[in-house]
Each structure stands twice: as structure tokens, then as C-alpha cells.
Amino acid sequence: MSTSRPSNSDNILNPETPSTSPAAADPTPEGNLPRHVAIIMDGNGRWAQGRGLPRIEGHRRGVATVRRTTEMASRLKLEALTLYCLSSENWKRPKTELDFLMHLLRQYLIEERRTLLEQNLRLRFIGRVDRLDEKVLREVERTQKLCRDNTGTELVLAVDYGGRDEIARATRRLVTKALEEGLSPDSIDEKLVAENLDTQGLAEVDLMIRTGGDMRISNFLLWQVSYAEFWFTQKCWPEFEDEDFQQALTDFGERTRRFGGLVPN
After folding, report:
1. Which of 13, 200, 207, 241 is the most buried (most CB within 10 A)?
2. Higher local confidence (pLDDT), 209 or 32
3. Residues annotated as binding site for Mg(2+)?
4. In degrees to the nearest 10, what's the CA dihedral of 105, 226, 198, 212?
5. Distance between CA 73 and CA 168 in Å, rounded?
């Protein structure tokens, strides 16, 4: 597990202003690139409170980091980028904060449609999206429809998501198939379980990044990160910049992955 150097950088892009850095200016990380990167975008509220700002300002600033990180994933042609936007446990937070998060999600889906199309990004949601507010759900469906023919990096947004809940829902699907369709319990293997998860069809996570200083998974992609490499940083999500993403990818490329076996001589 790696950690990056802490930084007190306040050079944060305005969420309403797209990055103007040319793609060619971004160096390609050394080593092999992961197919699927997942990020726990932690620390928005703490970043804001540490600057005497309301927590919701941290979430607003975090949108700029989402934009930058997504653009870089697209330029590097990563197969998939999964972002932990809202956990199933986050509903315990104050209603005002949750309402603002839903507003930000709806605004993001509307304002980023052109960018998603220009970058050829596919869009998928995982989690209990069906429980979202009707206005937000309507924009989810519209944006997914617009991106359905894209062929580039798959941007996966985990909203109202919990890893245990996902596995429980997959189990219920398999039980239903056994009862109603005659699925034999002996035929249930890892491949069949994976095919009934929200991430069906995606490669397993190669690299998990977490910002904000905490070193835990927090009920995120429990099945999919079985053999993922982990990279932690003390930086809060609004501070996470392209150079941090590049460092995480470079560190990944320098690691030896054994998947429980031995490295050949």
C-alpha cells in the first residue's frame, strides 16, 4: 500500500471553469496502466471545514476534481473509472447536505453532457439508483441515453451504493433464478455471481485510490477489489490533482501482482 506526500495546495479549479491544460502537456505514467481504476473521493467536508467554509462548498469544489480526473482517464484510454459518489450509509447525513449532493449530481449530469460526448465516455450507474429523487433519476436516464453509443472509457458512478447490499441483491437474483427458472445451486460459481453484480461486464478493479487520509475500503466494491492494488493519499478530494493521479498510476505500474501465486523466475 502506498501513500502520497501531503500537500497544502489551494490551487483548486473553479467547478464552473473547465480545465484549459492541453492534453499533450500531461505526461503518460510509466509502467503498465490499470484497466479499471476505482476512487473513494473522501475529504470534501473536512477540506471545507479546515478553511472555515461550509461542508457543501467542499462537495462543490470536488466536482472540479471529478472533471479533471475523468478527462485524464479518457486521455489515457483507461477501460473504466468508478467513482464512489454516495454510499448507502451517507443517507445518515444532514438533509441539507444530502439535498445539495442531489442538486450537484443533477447539475453535473446536465452540464457535463457535451463533455461526456466529446470525450466518448460511456456512462453507468451502480447502486440503488431507483431510490433517487425523480428529477435526478430523469437526468440519469437522459444522460445515459445520450452516451449509449460511446465507445471510450466507461465512467461508473456509484450512487446510493454499498458493497454488502450489492452482494445481497445479487444473491437474491440467484435464489430467484433457482426457484423460478430451475437454476442448479451447483452451477453457481464466481463467474455467475459476478454476472449478477451491478458491475457485470466490467473488468475487476486493478487500482483502488482513496483520498482524505483514511485507509479503509468503506463498503466499496467488496467483491471487485479482491486483488486490487491500493493507493492512499492524505490529500482531500478537492486537492487531488493530475500529478497525484499520475503518481498513483506510475506506482501501480511498478508493482508486481501475483494474484496469490509466485513470480516466475
Report:
1. 207
2. 209
3. 42, 229
4. -10
5. 31
**What is Dmax (Cα atoms) for the chain?**
59
Give me the chain's average pLDDT, please.
88
Quote the CA–CA distance of 147 and 20 in Å, as a whole number.
23
For residue 178, is pLDDT > 60? yes
Q: Which residues are designated catalytic?
A: 42, 90
CA 217 vs. chain centroid, Å, equals 13
Q: How far apart are the first and last CA of the chain?
A: 24
Residues 6 or more apart in contact with residue 54 via CB below 8 angstroms: 48
Binding residue positions: 42-47, 55, 59, 87-89, 91, 93, 210, 216-218, 229
Which amino acid, one-letter code, is at 246? Q
* Domains in the chain: ranges and CATH: 32-162+204-254 (3.40.1180.10)
> What does pTM read for this prediction?
0.85
* Spatial distance between the Cα atoms of 235 and 251, rounded to a whole number of angstroms: 17
pLDDT, tens digit (0-9, with 9 covering 90-100), for 51-98: 999 998 999 999 999 999 999 999 999 999 999 998 887 777 888 888
What is d(CA 94, CA 97) in angstroms, rounded to the nearest whole number? 5
